[in-house]
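User: I'm writing a tutorial on reading structure tokens. Could you give me a worked example: one chain, its sequence, then its tokens, then a sentence or two explaining what the tokens reveal?
Assistant: Sure. Here is the example chain.
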Amino acid sequence: IEQRVGMFGARATGVRLNEGGLLRADAVVVNADPMYAYEALVPQQYRDGRLMKRMERLEPSCSGFVVLLGVRGDYPELAHHNVFFSHNYRAEFDYIFNRHEPAPDPTIYVACTSKSDPTQAPPGHLNMFVLVNAPALSPEIYWPARRDLYRNHIISRLEAFGLQDLRERIVFERTITPLDFEEKYHAWRGSIYGLSSNSRSTAFLRPPNRAPGISNLFFVGGSVHPGGGIPLVLLSARLVARLVK
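And here are its predicted structure tokens:
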């Protein structure tokens, strides 16, 4: 982000493009994670050092392990939204937040949008978005070595829940790990909700929507105020729109 210093402090004047050139703007709205944005987009002399140090001391939210499946045939027992619950929620989150390990008995969310809109999958097939909670990135786990093992474990858990012969009926799949969330979407340590909401003060510690010290640089999305999840992200967008206006 190109900036200049005027009598009232720093001011963003536009965005430098990877392919070259500068896109000038009266205001810049960033929907990337602030930790990534400050490190990769904002010149060092204008970074909010206090915010970055504070964030490094805080705990990120959980990440996600996603398996996208195209499946031959149908499972009539599945609806658009499905949740297969862990037998022990407390143990599941102990693995994720204390051991920093994928849970052996995770809660599994499965969305089949083709149940509501048949055009979402070819005739005679079903699409399945499979999501389980996963720990944020840490030295304890190396996802390139664990990805396929955990994918196989999740498929086995779904078969045990009653989706018979699932692995034999898969005709397309793609797996997304916490490392992918960090590398492709620049999520802080792969977290998908920003800061972990495990205390009453967390909401007040989230990065603000207006960048400190830069008058017309704004942040929006689940990693800033007021928090993660679609309703709060929409509120974030409305707040930023009002600030820009």
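What the tokens reveal: Helices lie at 34-40, 49-57, 89-99, 143-160, 178-185, 202-205, 230-244. The chain has a mean pLDDT of 89.
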